[in-house]
Amino acid sequence: MNSPARRNVLKVVVCLLVVGKSTTAGAQPARAKAAPPVDVTLTTKDGVQLQATYYPSSAGQQAVPVVMLHDFNETRAVFDPLARTLQNPPAPASPAAPQIASRAVLAVDLRGHGGSKYSQAANGSTVELESNRFQQDDFRAMVDLDMEAVRSFLVEQNDAGKLNLNSLGLVGSGMGANVALLWAAKDWSAPPLPVRKQGQDVKALVLLSPRWNFNGLLLRDPLRFRPIQSQLSVLLAYGAEDRAVSKDCQDIIKILSKHHPEPPADRVEQLKDFFVYSPATNLQGTKLLTSDAFGIGPKIFNFLEARLGRQAFPYSVRKNP
User: Fold this and answer.
1) Which pLDDT value is given to residue 26?
2) Which long-range contacts link 36-40 to residues 24+ away (Cβ below 8 Å)?
């Protein structure tokens, strides 16, 4: 693929590798190329057949997993250029530059969107889902049911040694940003189990043009939840010239900025964990991401590398032996 969006995302590599600091002398060993993306079907507890594309990593059990969630009436295809670049970052620009590890990416069609428009009823009949007729309960089911099916898939990959679920990142656009934030709160509210780790997997959020309330996906409660306020790294991006979106995002910034103080100037690269980008445009969500004018793709790439790729999150098996 050689679309403008693809080229935009690839620009990040030059920036990242120029400023990266090598920790070893001499050339780095070549990174194995990841396997091609595969389409998978995830079945929810209420029978919805979610369609998703999985971009497997070549980094084994230390692979950072990233889940991508689209906006209303979009599909997972909007994230393909970014997903492919995260899965297979180009080689370093110089032998001394550090390797960037392959990420394990899952891009999902949420219920009623893309290929996820069919549900299997209890009597065996097939029900078609139409997003334009959704009620608030349908949108809430994206958080409660769709994301649990996503997590089940990630647990399987984690326990097979193909990724480290404890370093999970979520990238959401518009509606998908609200789903990501609400599910992150649910993830962090899961009670710990004495025999295995459960929850507290989400470590980073990329929120593209979230709304304070999208069809009942209200952000008030998760933004009052202390782990969401202080435990997660967050990148927020939106077009500042849309008054409604700008107001919602400014409210989010007021809450999160209190819990993410600016680090000392000499420690920004290591400690900064809250980033806001608000270019002067009406573009929002994935349209903001895929525009060459604002460099949002490279910013996301750098953010995920700094806040997930360079951090040490312990790996653990999730299911009982």
Assistant:
1) 47
2) 37/83, 37/84, 37/87, 40/153
Handedness of CA 24, 25, 29, 31 (dihedral sign): positive
- CA–chain centroid gap for 45, Å, is 23
- For CA atoms 258, 274, 210, 218, the dihedral sign is negative
Q: How far apart are the first and last CA of the chain?
A: 42
3-state secondary structure of 205: strand
Distance (Å, rounded) from C-alpha 5 to C-alpha 80? 9
Residue 67: pLDDT above 90?
Answer: yes
Average pLDDT, the chain: 90
Sketch the domain layout of the chain as residue ranges.
4-18+33-191+203-309
Q: What is the pLDDT of residues 106-117, one digit of tens each?
A: 999 999 999 999
Structure tokens at 230: 């202080």
Indicate the CATH number for domain 4-18+33-191+203-309: 3.40.50.1820
Identify the pLDDT of residue 216. 97
- AA letter at 302: N
According to DSSP, the β-strands at 202-208 and 168-173 are parallel
Quick one: pLDDT at residue 28?
Answer: 55
- Non-local (6+) Cβ contacts of 198 within 8 A are 190, 191, 192, 318
User: What whole-number distance in Å separates Cα of residue 126 and Cα of residue 110?
Assistant: 17
